[in-house]
Amino acid sequence: MTVKIQLLPEGTTFEAEPGETILDAALRQGIGLPYGCRNGQCGSCAGHLVSGWIQYPSGLITALEGKKAGTCLTCQAVPTSDLVLEVAQRRVPAEIEIRTLPGRVERKEHLNHDVVRLLLKLPEQQRLQFLAGQYVELSLRDGRTRAFSIANAPHDDAFLELHIRQIAGGEVTRHIFEELAEKSILRIRGPLGDFYLREESQRPIIMVAGGTGFAPLKGMIEHAIEVGLKRPIHLYWGARSRRDLYFPDLPGQWAEKLPSFAFTPVLSEPDADWTGRTGWVHEAVLQDAGSLDAHEVYMAGPPAMIAAAETAFLAHGLDRNLLFADAFTYSRSPTGEAGDEA
């Protein structure tokens, strides 16, 4: 038996099938809800449960308990009654169609000690239309699936470019690093996510990357260059050491094409000869910008970085509606092995 879900404040209503999560039901019917990791870790999908019953994989909660906790994770919550849910709807243009396609590994390139770049070729006459910053799900032959951000811009769509970091204990990334060969065929599903460059604003942009969070921001910046975006863009890239900045020369190339672009790398465990910025990347942003009430911010990286930056940025005047984040989380297989979401 289907259940009815009403979204506030817009009043949108839709139905969910038995056993279907709120997010899956919404996306199936073309309703845009915020989400990121889709495994309950990043919190991007959180809404406020006003009334009704939901069930998480760990058990049943009531509307009262949901209110007390203040959140309902739509990517995990399965409704067991009609619901009223308060959540901010985000709309991806209707022409962006989610598709499932085969992709051939055209090139596999190690960018540093723990990051590999894959260039995936889609079938002839096929292109995946996407927005700069979105991601795809990559499935191996055995069915294991992980999500990775698209690192190229929409106009440069001959290949899909992915940056994949090797995770300690991660069986999927181990397979990609050690066993996946060029010409291998993978299954691609996407584009997914509502992390993409908003082009209609005139506000200056601050971008904050942690590790391979550089990937979706790369796509955004290269799209900005392509469309001639005039807004100032300042990219901060946080990493442990110099070798973790796996595309060190690329920002300089962007600056030659985009006069309003600035780049600041920030190292938390700097090399002895490092003369650049050190410490936490979000603190470097605040040292430079001070108040953020005039800015728009895009962040991609580990959840701890996202959480710390969000708290600090909101305290310094950033409008919550102008903060867009993509938290890269770890997913676990039934055997407990960790894999990355990037």
UniProtKB/TrEMBL annotation:
InterPro entries: 2Fe-2S_ferredoxin-like_sf (IPR036010), 2Fe-2S_ferredoxin-type (IPR001041), 2Fe2S_fd_BS (IPR006058), Beta-grasp_dom_sf (IPR012675), Cbr1-like_FAD-bd_dom (IPR008333), FAD-bd_FR_type (IPR017927), Flavoprot_Pyr_Nucl_cyt_Rdtase (IPR001709), FNR_nucleotide-bd (IPR039261). Coiled coil: none annotated. Residues 3-91 form the 2Fe-2S ferredoxin-type domain. Its cofactor is [2Fe-2S] cluster. This is CDP-6-deoxy-delta-3,4-glucoseen reductase. Gene3D superfamilies: 3.10.20.30, Nucleotide-binding domain of ferredoxin-NADP reductase (FNR) module, Translation factors. CDD domains: fer2 (cd00207), flavin_oxioreductase (cd06189). It comes from the Bacteria. Residues 98-198 form the FAD-binding FR-type domain. PANTHER family: NADH OXIDOREDUCTASE HCR (PTHR47354), PROTEIN RFBI (PTHR47354:SF5). It holds the Pfam family NAD_binding_1. GO terms for molecular function: 2 iron, 2 sulfur cluster binding; oxidoreductase activity.
